[in-house]
Design brief:
By secondary structure, the chain is an alpha/beta fold. The protein contains eight helices and 15 strands. It has a six-stranded mixed β-sheet, sandwiched between helices. It has a five-stranded mixed β-sheet with strand order 9-15-14-11-12. A hairpin with a 4-residue loop joins strand 11 and strand 12. The termini are far apart. GO terms for molecular function: ABC-type transporter activity; ATP binding; ATP hydrolysis activity. Keywords: ATP-binding, Nucleotide-binding, Transport. It comes from Pseudocalidococcus azoricus BACA0444. Pfam families: ABC_tran.
């Protein structure tokens, strides 16, 4: 949470008055959370998912005692360690060493207890060279590494972690997930984990709470929670149109609309496994002379990245664009994807030098079903058929020796 001085608040009020934005007596009531109720048992690892604005961060701040609920109560039994935002819990003027001891003291630990964990914290955070540097000089990645190491190692009974881990690099994120797994399984600690990374939620959490519009949309198995999330009216759909209100003069390319469709152009959400699936994007180029390529990412309902595809074959891939509107379509072949729900991310890139101009990670969604007709890779088999893809592969069989 950012802190402001009284002077900044007063000046902000004056600016609002001069712009005509301040109206005495005018206010609008808004509930970030309402009628939210759930129980978490000791040793549970619970994911919390939902779109931006669903109330996730507010919930964690209430559970961390940073924010007091307007009504109701949060009953917590155990010492809480929280990692909610870059900067939470650290004093910027103190060194990394001093902040470790300060956080331990806040958690009620003695200096002897903190010293016993000190070397392990420093090794995990990989900040040995900067241990006696004020943390205000740390990069965001260093800050998060040390903050997570402190939160995870100073023996809280309950560990609350927000999406802040996304600031770290992929290797450190993997290490954090491993540590949280150890903390829950080996030490019996309780973990609340907020993330937009569905793969991480699936790997770590046995159950998940889906927040929707400030309420609990679903609470149960993680896989079902993610499916509810993807299929909800707040999730991605088979068609998206971007508003011109979001366009700015400094952009050279904009998304206009995108759709998922069949071979005949029909916009659809549900496809048989034997159908080709088209993904089409329309975009506008506002400045001539740039070379663009198109890209898409495909994720399943567990957050696993099924494929990434960049346009390396179309006739326009190395052609500088003039101003105007363009479209591009990529086809997913029939009998390729397994059954399930899929999320599409879209991008416009310049290949050389590499630059991402546009990226919409959750732009579109669709489902694939297998009707067990014998025309897919499962044949007439009706049981569970696992796997991320389901192609019909070439098999050869022959008689090697004839029975006597």
């Amino acid at each position: 949470m950012a802190y402001r001085s009284l002077r900044e608040d007063l000046w902000g009020g004056v600016q609002g008055f001069l712009k005509g934005g301040w109206q005495p007596g005018h206010w609008e009531e808004f509930w970030a959370l309402q009628d939210v109720s759930f129980d978490v048992q000791q040793g549970d690892v619970v994911g919390i998912i939902g779109r931006n604005g669903a109330g996730k961060s507010t919930l964690l701040k209430i559970l961390s005692r940073i924010v007091k609920p307007t009504t109701g109560e949060a009953v917590i039994r155990g010492r809480v360690g929280s990692l909610l935002e870059v900067g939470t819990g650290f004093h910027p003027e103190l060194t990394g060493r001093e902040n470790i001891f300060m956080n331990g003291a806040i958690l009620g630990m003695s200096r002897t207890e903190i010293r016993a964990k000190f070397d392990e914290i420093v090794a995990f955070a990989e900040v040995e060279k900067f241990l006696d540097t004020p943390v205000k000089h740390y990069s965001s990645g260093m800050y998060v590494r040390l903050a997570f190491a402190v939160a995870a190692h100073l023996e809280p009974e309950i560990l609350i972690v927000d999406e802040v881990l996304a600031v770290g690099d992929a290797q450190f994120q993997k290490k954090c997930l491993g540590k949280m797994g150890d903390v829950s399984k080996k030490e019996g600690k309780t973990i609340l984990f907020v993330s937009h990374n569905m793969g991480a939620v699936v790997r770590l959490c046995s159950e998940t709470i889906l927040l929707m519009r400030g309420g609990v949309g679903y609470h149960g198995s993680t896989r079902k929670a993610i499916t509810h999330y993807i299929n909800s009216d707040l999730g991605a759909t088979n068609f998206k149109q971007w508003s011109f209100d979001n366009f700015s003069d400094d952009k050279i390319v904009f998304f206009l609309k995108a759709k998922v469709h069949s071979k005949d152009g029909t916009i659809k959400s549900n496809f048989e496994i034997t159908e080709e699936i088209g993904i089409t994007i329309h975009y506008r180029v506002t400045k001539s002379g740039y070379v663009f390529t198109h890209g898409c990412n495909l994720f399943n309902d567990q957050g696993i990245n099924i494929l990434n595809s960049h346009d390396i074959v179309s006739s326009m891939r190395n052609v500088p664009r003039s101003q105007g509107d363009y479209s591009a379509t990529v086809w997913i072949p029939s009998n390729f994807l397994a059954e399930g729900t899929f999320i599409i991310g879209l991008a416009i890139l310049t290949p050389e030098p590499f630059s991402i101009h546009l990226h919409e990670p959750n732009a579109l969604a669709f489902k694939v079903t297998d009707n067990i007709s014998g025309s897919s890779a499962r044949g007439e088999y009706t049981g569970e058929f696992p796997g991320l893809v389901r192609p019909i592969l070439k098999w050869e069989a022959s008689l090697c020796t004839k029975a006597q």
